[in-house]
Design a protein that fits this description.
By secondary structure, the chain is of the alpha/beta class. 36% of the residues lie in helices and 15% in strands. The structure holds pyridoxal-5'-phosphate.
Length: 354
């Protein structure tokens, strides 16, 4: 690399750029980013098209959407914060809580964005390995808390491996976390969860844990990944601090309008989510039959623990017109997308069964 023209913070210069799921050609299925294979929900495109005031700045706090979500959660408006994707709120929370010498703790492997957000804040990422079946080792995570821990991320269902954290597991964990450490419950895939034992942000908030912030997104089940809108629910003081670190006006009016229209299409949303969850269960079952030890899959994706063969298997999927997400040396994540892709997925996976 040629020398940089100005001084860059060394930890930033060393940071790999965020790696996005590969794009797919028109003849391939894009199963690399856990997107929704369905079109936007009914009414959403029309609502966005009728919002033509684009010469005006958006409402900075997305007040209408906040009020709508606050009503759903039974909280005050100030207990909801909207971001340009929930990833941006994760970065805000890291900035607000953690600086040099501080630690951000999470399970690994998990969401690709987590390591970078600690580094950008100037803090240190501390990781605890997943259990062998791809879940969070909450016991070990509680044991990894130090007096420098400022933020803990719990990802459920865990992206990319699939298992949930149970309500009982979360309750036992939170009882061991000092009250002055932020715990972020990242529930990006919560709509797809069918396990009745699963933790739910609503229940955690109702229990009065003021140090827990629940993160949700419109990108996955709601199918608005391209518009960038997500939200957090939690203590107004924490969310106000997050807001202070954010880039003002980054949630567009189009995104807010689309999110509101999506909330109006609840019945259609639930029907689509049920289709994806059934398709996921069927796919996981077929992959297990083919010899793969697929972990519990509660999101809109399945995980092949491919180990050293991950990249090779990812390339074979691509050859077959299936763009998936291989993680070198670890495994392959396959999003649950179009029904037409399922047979081909199983065929490629079966040819590599361990
Ligand atoms: C996709 C995802 C998000 C949300 O992304 P946004 O599009 O920024 O809302 C957050 N957390 C996890 C674990 C994800 O997989």
């Amino acid at each position: 690399m040629s020398e940089l023209p100005v001084r860059i913070r060394p930890e930033i210069a060393a940071l790999p750029a965020y790696k996005q799921g590969k794009q797919a050609g028109s003849d391939a299925f894009k199963l690399s980013s856990n997107e929704n294979p369905f079109d936007p929900l009914p009414g959403v495109v029309a609502a966005v098209q009728s919002a033509t005031d684009i010469h005006r700045y958006p409402d900075a706090s997305a007040a209408l959407l906040r009020a709508r979500l606050a009503e759903r959660f039974g909280v005050i408006d100030d207990a909801v914060h909207i971001g340009a994707g929930s990833v941006s709120i994760l970065f805000q929370l890291a900035q607000a809580t953690s600086g040099p010498g501080d630690e951000v703790l999470f399970s690994w492997r998990s969401f690709e964005a987590y390591p970078g957000l600690a580094v950008v804040a100037g803090a240190t990422a501390v990781t605890v390995p997943n259990t062998v079946d791809g879940g969070h080792d909450l016991d070990a995570m509680a044991g990894a808390i130090t007096d420098r821990t400022r933020m803990i991320i719990v990802c459920t269902p865990n992206n990319p491996t699939g298992p949930i954290v149970t309500q009982a597991g979360f309750d036992a964990f939170i009882a061991r976390v000092p009250h002055n450490i932020l715990v972020v419950l990242d529930e990006a895939y919560t709509e797809f969860v069918t396990d009745p034992e699963s933790v739910h942000g609503e229940q955690v908030l109702a229990a009065g844990h003021r140090n827990v912030v629940v993160l949700r997104t419109f990108s996955k089940a709601y199918g608005l990944a391209g518009l960038r809108v997500g939200y957090a629910v939690g203590d107004p003081g924490i969310l106000s601090a997050a807001r202070s670190t954010g880039i003002p006006l980054s949630v567009t009016a189009a995104a807010e309008t689309a999110a509101l229209a999506s909330l109006d299409a609840e019945a259609e949303l639930l029907a689509r989510v049920a289709v994806i969850a059934e398709r996921r269960d069927a796919l996981a079952a077929r992959l297990r039959e083919a010899g793969w030890d697929v972990p519990v899959a509660q999101g809109n994706f399945v995980w092949l623990p491919a180990g050293a063969r991950a990249l090779e298997i990812g390339a074979a999927f691509e050859q077959a017109g299936l763009i998936v997400r291989p993680f070198a040396g670890d495994g392959v994540r396959i999003s649950v997308g179009e029904a037409e892709a399922l047979d081909a997925i199983v065929a490629v996976a079966a040819s590599f069964a361990p």
